[in-house]
Model the fold of this input.
Amino acid sequence: MAIHKLVFDDDFDEVCNTLIAIHCTLEDYRLAYLLNKHLGITLKRKPVDLDYSKKDASYAIYEWVDHKQLLTWNLVSNICKKQALQETDYRSLFNTEQTTTTFYLLPEHKTVNYFLKIDSEFSFSKEKYILDSILKIPQIATAYSINYSELQSKENLIFS
Done:
């Protein structure tokens, strides 16, 4: 009896994503508006934020599905700030003080404010055009591509 052996290539492990880091001080809704205007897309806020119960953090997320080119665009905040009241040990007029804890979606990129992730079923060749269009927005300090395969916490970028 013959033995048939199937060998799969490593193509299944590769994910075709474009990840763009955006540095700016804008609110998430304002950045989504400017990206929609300059890139000709229609990002809309998802009804539920990206929530990580382990960290007690949630991140604003916007999405647009381009059915023509089979692309999914996601704009997600990298920073989540939580405020909590903490009781103080020393005697004062007030027994509590407010502390702020900062969480990051991708801790290895703490200086990045937002990420624009583009999922596709084929390699995306318009990355340079998108970056140039983003850099033309005056409110954005800088934007650059990040190699998706070199990320340590890429599981945080799985949104579905």
The chain has one domain: 16-148. Residues 108 and 152 are 8 Å apart (CA to CA). The radius of gyration is 20 Å. Residues 28-39 form the longest helix (12 residues).
